[in-house]
């Protein structure tokens, strides 16, 4: 809340999309404080009931909040592919100035999604990466002489606790070699690496950030 107050002028009038905004989580609190100043806050989650509860709680706290909830399961790689038309409607054809990737999964057992990818990597990075790629034209459209749009990944200090991304295991997940914590850390390392590369490739038109929430 203190950070949002200090950065109020940076947020005011902006369209912000935040993933993983279930009630009382980090994403929810981010959406709540940003909603005080933003033009529109698009919240996403895979559970409609929890998403609606979060929307109601924010609007109850901030009467002027403009919240648009959208169902999005980032563990399903087909979900972001269906999203762009909904986003265009939700933000009334205005650019997306700020995209915050907060959604994440932390599981203790080996599990594959329908796309045959390990769940933590799919939810924590590949799904968000695909969403970013699909929304890049809308994000780039927000760039002006005086404002550079932001893409933020909520990563973890765990990114530094892995030897790197095992691309062989990523392509061919193996339950016999699965270490849950390392899978999580690899997904967070992927967040950091992609943020750096996004900033490079956008050549100053998008600022990429990654952070440890603790």
Automatic annotation (TrEMBL):
GO terms for molecular function: oxidoreductase activity. Coiled coil: none annotated. InterPro entries: NAD(P)-bd_dom_sf (IPR036291), SDR_fam (IPR002347). The keyword Oxidoreductase applies. Keywords: Oxidoreductase. It comes from the Eukaryota. The keyword Oxidoreductase applies. Belongs to the short-chain dehydrogenases/reductases (SDR) family. This is Short-chain dehydrogenase. It comes from Mycena albidolilacea.
């Amino acid at each position: 809340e203190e950070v949002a107050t200090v950065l109020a002028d940076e947020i005011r009038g902006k369209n912000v999309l935040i993933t993983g905004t279930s009630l009382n989580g980090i994403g929810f609190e981010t959406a709540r404080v940003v909603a005080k100043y933003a033009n529109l806050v698009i919240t996403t989650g895979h559970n409609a009931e929890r998403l609606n509860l979060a929307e109601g709680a924010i609007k109850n706290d901030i009467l002027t909040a403009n919240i648009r909830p959208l169902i999005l399961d980032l563990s399903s790689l087909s979900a972001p592919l269906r999203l762009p038309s909904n986003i265009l409607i939700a933000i009334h054809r205005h650019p997306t100035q700020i995209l915050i990737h907060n959604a994440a999964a932390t599981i203790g057992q080996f599990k594959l999604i329908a796309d045959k990818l390990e769940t933590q990597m799919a939810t924590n990075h590949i799904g968000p990466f695909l969403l970013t790629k699909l929304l890049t034209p809308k994000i780039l459209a927000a760039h002006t002489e005086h404002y550079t749009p932001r893409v933020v990944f909520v990563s973890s200090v765990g990114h530094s606790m892995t030897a790197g991304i095992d691309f062989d295991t990523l392509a061919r997940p193996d339950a016999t070699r699965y270490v849950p914590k390392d899978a999580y850390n690899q997904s967070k390392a992927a967040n950091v690496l992609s943020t750096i590369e996004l900033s490079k490739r956008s050549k100053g038109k998008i600022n990429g950030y990654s952070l440890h929430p603790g």
